[in-house]
Specification:
CATH class: Alpha Beta
Strand order of the largest sheet: 3-2-1-4-5-7-6
Radius of gyration: 18 Å
Shape: globular
Number of domains: 1
CATH architecture: 3-Layer(aba) Sandwich
Number of helices: 11
Helix content: 40-55%
Strand content: 15-25%
Distance between the termini: 27 Å
CATH topology: Rossmann fold
Largest sheet: 7 strands, mixed
């Protein structure tokens, strides 16, 4: 419990600190995900299109109407994308950082969607919603922050209606391939980003199954995510001066350096998982 509370506070404080950075790099979309791109497509990556594609892929098995849970809703982009596509949908977004909740609420108001979405401050490992509240749920690059991923899966299952679909798109650990200094750098990066050790594909699957989810399917999206990293490096470079005006130059340059180092590795420094499942 102490570990979970400590990591929760660190994640909340971290995202409060860098919320403006995320907002700047999202370029008004409210989406801050790695994006999805065909590795065989010779065209330069359109990062906005790639991010839209990843959101759509994550949400594709959820019902087109009813009430969804967005677990770790960030700046609100993925929820608003779904609402724009499906007119009979309502979404509750839960996020740990009040600054991001406020930014998401404002974005919903500006798009005229605030009557169909509720962004709330909360812990996705201990949700306030009653059992059987939601017709579907997803978590996009959020659950990796949870020190108790079993608690997260158990909560997601609890608040879903029987048979309701669930989807998670997130980072996963490499099974092997990192040399000692790379493991040390990765561990430092995880610590500074308030992230416990990454799960492997097998650990993600086990956590879902042992908490009662059924029809668990793991899909490896690593090769489709990797092409977008260079586009992220370009976007960071494009906004560097604006970011340096708000943040220590060392922080911005460290972010850029980390991206460049990952790009040098043929297999990257992490894998990327899409997990789909169904509540019993």
């Amino acid at each position: 419990m102490a570990l979970r509370l400590g990591m929760r506070r660190r994640a909340r404080d971290l995202y409060a600190l860098i919320s403006d950075l995320f907002d700047t790099l999202s370029e008004g979309s409210g989406s801050f995900n790695l994006g999805l791109w065909d590795p065989d497509d010779p065209r330069p990556v359109d990062l906005a299109a790639a991010q839209h594609a990843l959101v759509a892929r994550t949400q594709e098995n959820l019902p087109r109407e009813g009430h969804w849970l967005d677990a770790g809703s960030g700046l609100g982009g993925p929820a608003l994308q779904a609402l724009a596509a499906h007119s009979r949908l309502h979404i509750t977004g839960v996020n740990i950082t009040p600054e991001q909740v406020q930014a998401a609420q404002l974005r919903a108001e500006l798009r005229g969607l605030s009557n169909r979405v509720d962004f709330e401050e909360g812990d996705i490992q201990a949700l306030d919603q009653a059992p059987g509240t939601f017709d579907g749920a997803y978590a996009l690059e959020a659950a990796f922050h949870c020190p108790d991923k079993a608690a997260f899966f158990a909560e997601a299952r609890r608040v879903l209606k029987p048979g309701a679909p669930f989807a998670l798109a997130d980072f996963a650990a490499l099974d092997s391939g990192l040399v000692l200094w790379e493991r040390l750098v990765l561990r430092l990066g995880l610590w500074t980003s308030a992230t416990p050790p990454l799960f492997t594909f097998a650990q993600w699957e086990e956590a879902a199954r042992t908490t009662g989810f059924e029809d668990v399917v793991i899909t490896d999206l690593s090769s489709e995510v990797r092409p977008t990293l260079s586009a992220w490096a370009d976007r960071l470079s494009r906004h560097r001066e604006a970011l340096v005006a708000r943040y220590p130059r060392l922080l911005v340059d460290a972010f850029a350096l980390a991206l460049r180092q990952i790009l040098k590795r043929p297999q990257g420094a992490f894998r990327y998982v899409l997990l789909t499942a169904r509540a019993p």
